[in-house]
Amino acid sequence: MRLSQFHLHTSKETPADAEIASHRLMLRAGLIRKLAAGLYTWSPLGLRVLRRVEAVVREEMERAGAVELLMPSVQPRELWEETGRWEKFGGQLLKIQDRKESWYCYGPTHEEVITDFARAELASYRQLPVTFFQIQTKFRDEIRPRFGVMRAREFLMKDAYSFDIDDAGMAAQYQRMYDAYVRIFTRLQLEFRAVEADTGAIGGSASHEFHVLADSGEDAIAFSTATDYAANVELAQAAEPAARAAPSEDMRRVETPTQKTCDDVAALLGIPLARTVRTVAVMGAEGFTVVLMRGDHALNEIKLAKLPGLGDYRMATEAEIADHLGSEPGFLGPVAPARAIRVVADREVAAMADFVVGANVPGFHLAGVNWGRDLPEPDSVADLRNVAEGDRATDGGEIRIARGIEVGHVFQLGRRYAEAMGFTVLDEQGKAVVPAMGCYGIGVSRIVAAAIEQNHDEAGIIWPEPMAPWQVAVCVINPKQNPDVDEAAEALHRELRSAGLDVVLDDRGLRPGPMFADIELIGIPHRVVVSERGLAAGTFEYRARRGGDSENLDRGTLMTRLG
Ligand code: ATP
Ligand code: MG
Ligand code: MG
Ligand code: MG
Description:
Blueprint: H1 21-28, E1 32-36, E2 39-42, H2 44-63, E3 67-68, E4 74-76, H3 77-82, H4 85-88, E5 94-97, E6 103-106, H5 111-121, E7 130-139, E8 154-164, H6 167-187, E9 192-196, E10 207-213, E11 219-224, E12 230-232, H7 233-238, H8 249-255, H9 262-269, E13 279-284, E14 287-294, E15 297-299, H10 318-325, H11 347-352, E16 355-356, E17 365-366, E18 369-370, H12 382-391, E19 399-414, H13 416-420, E20 425-426, E21 432-433, E22 436-443, H14 444-454, E23 456-457, E24 460-461, E25 472-476, H15 483-498, E26 503-506, H16 512-521, E27 526-530, H17 532-537, E28 540-544, E29 551-553, H18 555-562
Parallel strand pairs: 3-7, 25-26, 25-27
Antiparallel strand pairs: 1-2, 4-6, 5-6, 7-8, 8-22, 9-10, 10-19, 11-12, 11-19, 13-14, 13-17, 14-15, 16-18, 19-22, 20-21, 23-24, 27-28, 28-29
Helix pairs in contact: 1-14, 2-6, 2-14
The structure holds adenosine-5'-triphosphate and magnesium ion (MG) (3 copies).
One magnesium ion (MG) binds at residues 340, 406.
């Protein structure tokens, strides 16, 4: 590949609205360009990186025995009504109408579609177990798209779905996928942790999230230094018996606020409210209630519909809330249905966070904190640590709290979808049984951003080698001036390629300063300079992106170094 014939568009400017390093660098390196909120074009350069991630994911899925298919991104309403999710999914579901005024959604996930496929194509236990996967565009109307492709509205996901005759089979497939995820993130050279995750509103028996560790992460995870134990902080808290208690008297009072001030509600909940509190979510045994506030006032008119164990209320959907308030989608901040709201807040943490959605109430397990990026270092979340140590005091290790970026999620779904959609297969005895299902997601496009969060410096991106758009850049000083220099660069280019390396030839004719700055910004792991001077001395100048000085190496040494 010749850079003169490739479209590279870098920029020195730091985009004003980009809050985190990966977002800034992806824009500066010209990997992505924003079209509208949460919608991005992947440039030719960006796409090379995205495809590399995709390739690793695909290889490991296939190695784990999953088979690829491709489902439509537009999905009919009727299917979603079978599982009740047309209403329940909330504001993230983008609903669209065709010319006949039939309703569809743009798929945020594909449990319904895959179950529809499975019920049409799978009839016997002999066809199980089977795991299907696809790598495909999803759309979620995120209430607060941000950080570029990290939390976009349209994004690329690998989603896989397993079908098994029984629970033991489902657990085995789950483990196979879990192991594949470990291989994927290891191959991509990311520092990550698999954490136990709350199964949330979906229910089901087991779930793990894979988090890339980064200070900019939106999740808080607790892990032990002594063992492999790690949990999403929300889960550590959920394990407390209090979390499962019946609604308390206090709770009932919160359910019927009449123009209560923030302070009233704070007193009821027993938490100091930060100035910026806008929403309080109270979670009971089987669901939770959202109390919304605008300014100082609790908005009591919100219809919170019925949930067992919570009197006459259920969580209002984002859509209901937004409709009711007639507000901008950003009003609520990142309050999402059930699962997303579950990071557990401690009183003090609640007071420190920039956006609080809940706190502890006696007898209640509560929703949580959207981690403000100014949240102080782990020490100041000592109480969260205590919570986790309640949970895990016995392994002799220390519990650390870190922030993570959720890049993958595996889930034992059980029979919920198959049951709702009437999907059965015949077992060995010829009896119709409902198969057990698992689902497994990876944020392919999010991984690109997450990798940059972990790998960058002042000069730009430092790609983990398996993700780099090219492994080697051959930079030509003053191309088309001296035929010997051009010929030497071409020859080296050919030689490196036949050694199996992915090489780009920078023949754009930029001055060395700007040329090297570009190559560093876009994060190419190895740089080789071909110049008249080097040629005269019989050497090439080599430099690794990860640091170290540049060295003048003869051809043989260079090939060994890169090989
Ligand atoms: P989050 O908690 O970050 O909102 P999620 O739990 O809603 O993610 P899943 O339903 O588990 O997401 O989807 C599988 C994967 O898709 C996630 O682990 C994440 O890597 C990725 N993903 C989810 N939402 C987005 C988004 N808005 N932009 C980019 N990637 C996303
Ligand atoms: Mg999540
Ligand atoms: Mg989400
Ligand atoms: Mg998830």
